[in-house]
Design brief:
Length: about 350
């Protein structure tokens, strides 16, 4: 190193100046020291914080906001009263300022039919609870044993069985709370669960046959869904076909393509919309009478349950205009589709 530079080097590095950062704090300190009222206000605020926190904690659990009025919605079925009692008991241990949704869910954990619980406090003493259920839509039959199953495939147990539930055959029996095993079973219960309640009550069973997923009604009518895609569109298409006078006497309705449904007729039955001399047994339906209301669907379902052969369009109020097209398919499906017991397979697997 050049000896001539030694005297010019600094003996220590300069420290950074903190005046710009510390200046606001020093200004506040001078303000507090200079003004007595500011000091008193600051000390009072510091003393009030614990009091406010303690007061809030006391108020949250005080009788002033205790839950007394419990209103529950969304509960149906056989376990409705037991679910309401469990939720009411748990809710009355809370306050409107301290609602524990987890405690409400825990109170209903033994009911597999309950999917979720949502609570909304109403100050000062009310609590509104809405229960989201997974109700049984079918009876799963495995080796003669029956158990209720929800639309999402959750097994609900035999306690929720009823005679009105349609049947779905499976291969594996699970425990309550588990999901059914097998894509065909899941597809069947999903399609049944997507039906409007009046139509669902008219369903006898669902199975996988030569035409894919098939729904059989109590009156004998078959509905070919093919698979579980677009179930709501297929049910709506089916309702429109049944509301069409040209489907009267049909043995099955094909809604695998919901935009192009078709009604099939057994041998010896002449479709109303086909002119004399026509040889086909299946007619496509355009669905011009597409305004099938819920009341119409209920009427159709009643007819499905009470008439063999699935003739559900006998009511004159079901539709206003025919819904047939001029063209007919060149091939006639086999009338053996009216006998699913010969070709059907268990839905499970």
């Amino acid at each position: 190193m050049d000896r001539s530079l030694v005297g010019r080097l600094p003996t220590a590095l300069p420290l950074p100046r903190l005046g710009g950062v510390a200046a606001p704090f020093r200004a506040v300190g001078r303000l507090i020291r200079a003004h007595r009222r500011v000091r008193i206000a600051l000390l009072a605020a510091l003393a009030a914080v614990p009091l406010l926190v303690g007061g809030w904690m006391w108020l949250r659990q005080s009788p002033l906001v205790a839950v007394h009025d419990v209103r529950i919605s969304g509960v149906h079925g056989q376990q409705a009263k037991a679910i309401e009692a469990a939720l009411t008991d748990a809710a009355r241990r809370m306050s409107t300022l301290d609602v524990h949704a987890g405690a409400l869910r825990e109170a209903t954990s033994r009911f597999v039919v309950v999917r979720d619980v949502r609570a909304t406090p109403v100050f000062p003493h009310g609590l509104r609870i809405h229960v989201v259920e997974q109700l049984p839509v079918a009876a799963l039959v495995v080796a003669g044993a029956r158990t209720a199953v929800a639309a999402d495939g959750v097994i609900l147990g035999p306690a929720l069985l009823s005679g009105s539930l349609p049947t779905v055959a499976g291969f594996h029996e699970g425990l309550a709370g588990e999901r059914v095993d097998g894509p065909n079973v899941l597809a069947a219960v999903a399609v049944i669960g997507a039906a409007a309640m009046p139509l669902r009550r008219a369903v006898a069973r669902a199975y996988t046959g030569p035409d894919g997923l098939t729904v059989e009604f109590r009156g004998g009518l078959l509905a070919y869904f093919g698979d579980a895609t677009r179930p709501h569109a297929k049910w709506l298409s089916l309702a429109r076909v049944l509301a069409d006078p040209s489907s009267e006497g049909a043995s099955y309705v094909d809604v695998r393509l919901p935009a192009r449904p078709a009604a099939g007729f057994p041998a010896g039955v002449t479709p109303p919309a086909i002119a004399a001399g026509a040889s086909t047994s299946e007619i496509p339906l355009t669905g011009e009478s597409a305004s099938a209301s819920e009341a119409t669907i209920a009427s159709l379902a009643a007819n499905l349950a009470g008439h063999a052969g699935g003739s559900a369009a006998s009511s004159t109020s079901a539709t206003e205009t025919p819904a047939t097209t001029a063209e007919t398919p060149s091939e006639s499906p086999s009338t053996s589709t009216t006998e699913p017991s010969r070709n059907s397979e268990p839905t499970g697997g």
